[in-house]
Each structure stands twice: as structure tokens, then as C-alpha cells.
Specification:
Elements: H1 18-22, H2 27-35, E1 41-42, H3 55-69, H4 83-95, E2 105-108, H5 110-122, E3 128-133, H6 137-144, E4 149-156, E5 159-160, H7 165-172, E6 177-179, H8 193-206, E7 210-213, H9 229-233, E8 237-242, E9 254-257, H10 263-274, H11 279-290, H12 294-319, E10 325-326, E11 334-338, H13 345-354, E12 357-358, E13 360-361, E14 374-378, H14 384-401
Helix pairs in contact: 3-11, 5-6, 5-10, 12-14
The structure holds pyridoxal-5'-phosphate.
Length: 402
């Protein structure tokens, strides 16, 4: 069902570099291909709800950008990003507890590029990266090109298990600590304040940068806000942010907020990748925010996702058999399910797809390939009706296979 693309390559003809051959195609993209078949209810992707995209506003703002900025909006521009957007981002961060200037900000082509630039700047083959376990699979994919090893730290419902961090810092001397501290992809878990303070303290003591990948931080719809790692840790924290989940992912605009003294290294490696992120989309986002459209839009997203999360949790309580555990996120797009230890979510997936429901099995999110009995469910993309239907089907599937 899922095809290993490497197997199709005639290596006698095409001399693909050995470490690229070792890389795996994103399993999520492969599952998405299967799950996007008509009639399949998909909890597999990480897609924002398309019906919430601000299409009419974007149509107006596009016109405005072309009228106001003309050829400049279609021209090559700075590798660090257009000044107007960097200033606005710095101002927004400053208002939210992270004093920042334009010199701290570099615009990237989505958060994904920012993650990749971290490995480019900090990692040589064989170096360690510290991550949560499980962690965002797209980060593992970006990092793996640079042939790192992983110092993976288990999680509980307060996030990274902090007692394991110091020992592993001493043992492995990681180049950086990668965390998704808010409404983590894949688990939906948010790192507690206590753990944040301890993590910053350890990172500062050993001078290991924390890369805080935070695409979901603005989408909190319940519970109490927790300060960002960057607002607690200052320069030891490099924040990776994106407009993908709060405006639209197709614009491909994210940013890095980091210490001014190292930003030129990100700039250099970005230049080699794509010269700069799309000028037009940067102006589009700048004008969209300047028109005051962003904050009300985020509020709209929160209302919708809270309802969908509630729908999914209620359906899970009603339909999942005993022995199945799950997280209850206060924001973001995902929740995490653990089946009894003897069950394999990977083996169950073809049966789920036969029953017209898709999810992502948990294993690819673990740097050590464990997590056989886990799965990630996305609640932002399906309709409420399909959430109920899909969860009911999953409940039946679990019961049949327990
Ligand atoms: C934790 C995390 N980081 C980064 C990304 C990539 O975001 P972008 O679309 O901005 O590249 C995602 C997307 O799902 C994500 O979940």
C-alpha cells in the first residue's frame, strides 16, 4: 500500500549520494496520498481547516499589495526578508514578552526551512541533537540529511522529562535542544512552566541553544497561557515561528527570532537554498497584519478548533474501549492516542483505511523507532460530522483487534 520510493531507483544508472539514499520519504506524505482518496475520513494530515482561509481578504490585500508596492513586490528582495515584515514581527514579539528588533528576525520559507537551517548552521555528521520523544517527524526528516545522532528524551503530560536532560547533555554534548513546547506535534502536550524554567537553566549553564519550534502557540483555546521559552530564556532560545497555522500554509512564510550575533549565519545558509522567501507573500502578510486582520482571524480559528477538539474528545470517550489512553490538548491541531502495548498501529492502518478512516501511526515520530502502539489524530481538518463517524469506526477497529 505504502511504496518505498527508494526501491524504484535504478542505482546502477543514477549515482544518488549514499546518505540521500538512506533518507526515507516522509511517511506522512505517503499516508496522505492514500488517505486523500474519496470517501476516506482523514485524521492523518496536519492541515488547517480550508474553509477558514481568509480568501476574500486575501483577494483584496493582493490587489492592495500590487497597487501600493508594484514591481517591488514582484522583485528579488533581501535574504533576511523585507524590512517592513521583520519590523512588524519584532514589534509583535516585543509586545508578547520577547523584546526584539529587526536584527533578531530572519524570514524563512515556512517553519520547515527554519528547522532545516538549524541543522545546517549547527550540525556536522555524528553530532547529537537533543529532541523530545516523540517529536515532529518533519524535523527529523530535515535533520537527518546532516547525519546527526539523537539524544531523545521521553515525555509525560508536562512535556520533556527534565530529569533526563542534564545527564544526556553531559554525555552527548548536543548541538542544540529541539522542542515543540506548545501543543506539540504530535502529542498536543504543552511543556509546564516548571519544566520550561529548568530547561532554560540547564541550556544556559551548558550553553546549548534551545530551538523552540512554536507553530501552534497562538492557537490556545483552553487552559492557562504559559510564557514562551524565548520570553523566559532570551538569547539561549532560538524561536522558530510560522504563519502557516494562523493564516495559511500555502504562503510558505515563517521566521526565526534569534540572537542578533548569529543571524548572519542563518542568512548565509539561506542564500544558498533559495536566495530569499517570496517577496509577494511577505508583502501580502505584512499588509494583512497591518490592516488588523490577523488577530480576529486567530480568534475565529480558535473557536472552530475548540469545537472540533471537543467533538473528537466526546466521541473518543463514547467509543474507545478500555485500555486506550489519549491526551487532551488545550490548543493546536493534534492529539495522541496510546493503545495497549501489544497492539501495532502500523499493522492496523490498512484495516482502518479499508474502513475509510486514516491516521498517522506513531513510530516515525520517535527518533529510536519505538512507539509501535501509538497514533496521532488531527482534529482541525475533518468536519464535525466526520469526526464523530471516523472516531466511531476507529473504536470498532480497536475492539475487533484488542
Ligand atoms: C511542529 C511543526 N514545525 C514546523 C512545521 C512546518 O510548518 P510550515 O508550514 O511553516 O513549514 C509544522 C507543520 O505541520 C509543525 O507541526
Amino acid at each position: 500500500m505504502l511504496v518505498d520510493q527508494n526501491e524504484k531507483v535504478r542505482t546502477d544508472l543514477w549515482h544518488i549520494s549514499p546518505h540521500v539514499l538512506k533518507l526515507e520519504t516522509s511517511i506522512i506524505r505517503e499516508i496522505l496520498k492514500v488517505s486523500s482518496q474519496p470517501g476516506v475520513i482523514s485524521f492523518a494530515g496536519g492541515l488547517p481547516a480550508p474553509e477558514l482561509f481568509p480568501i476574500d481578504d486575501m483577494a483584496k490585500i493582493s490587489q492592495l499589495v500590487l497597487k501600493k508596492h508594484g514591481a517591488r513586490s514582484l522583485q528579488y528582495s533581501f535574504s533576511r526578508g523585507i524590512n517592513e515584515l521583520r519590523e512588524l514581527i519584532a514589534q509583535r514579539a516585543s509586545e508578547r514578552g520577547t523584546p526584539s528588533t529587526i536584527d533578531n528576525i530572519l524570514i524563512t520559507s515556512g517553519g520547515q526551512q527554519a528547522i532545516e537551517l538549524m541543522a545546517r548552521v549547527f550540525v556536522s555528521p555524528g553530532d547529537y541533537i537533543m529532541t523530545e520523544s516523540p517529536t515532529y517527524v518533519g524535523a527529523l526528516q530535515a535533520f537527518n540529511y546532516y547525519q546527526p545522532k539523537y539524544a531523545a528524551i521521553e515525555m509525560d503530560d508536562e512535556g520533556i522529562i527534565i530529569d533526563q536532560v542534564e545527564e544526556k547533555i553531559k554525555k552527548f554534548k548536543p548541538r542544540f535542544i529541539y522542542t515543540v513546547s506548545n501543543f506539540q506535534n504530535p502529542t498536543g502536550i504543552t511543556m509546564s512552566m516548571k519544566r520550561r524554567e529548568r530547561l532554560v537553566e540547564l541550556a544556559t549553564r551548558y550553553h546549548i541553544p534551545i530551538v523552540d519550534d512554536n507553530p501552534y502557540g497562538d492557537i490556545r483555546f483552553s487552559g492557562k497561557d504559559v510564557p514562551t521559552l524565548k520570553s523566559i530564556g532570551g538569547d539561549i532560545v532560538i524561536a522558530v515561528r510560522t504563519f502557516s497555522k494562523i493564516i495559511t500554509p500555502g504562503l510558505r512564510i515563517g521566521w526565526i527570532n534569534g540572537p542578533a550575533e548569529i543571524m548572519h549565519h542563518f542568512e548565509k545558509v539561506k542564500q544558498g537554498t533559495d536566495l530569499h522567501s517570496t517577496t509577494f507573500c511577505q508583502y501580502l502578510i505584512h499588509e494583512y497584519i497591518s490592516a488588523g486582520l490577523l488577530e480576529p482571524h486567530i480568534e475565529k480559528i480558535k473557536v472552530d478548533y475548540r469545537e472540533k477538539r471537543d467533538t473528537m474528545l466526546k466521541a473518543m470517550k463514547e467509543n474507545f474501549p478500555e485500555g486506550v489512553k489519549w491526551t487532551e490538548p488545550d490548543g493546536g491541531l493534534f492529539l495522541w492516542v496510546e493503545l495497549p502495548k501489544h497492539m501495532s498501529t502500523r499493522d492496523l492502518l490498512p484495516k482502518a483505511i479499508e474502513k475509510k478512516v486514516a491516521y498517522v501511526y506513531g513510530q516515525p515520530f520517535f527518533p529510536d523507532g519505538s512507539g509501535e502502539n501509538t497514533m496521532r489524530l488531527n482534529y482541525s481538518n475533518a468536519t464535525r460530522e466526520n469526526i464523530v463517524k471516523g472516531i466511531k469506526t476507529l473504536g470498532e477497529l480497536f475492539r475487533e483487534n484488542m
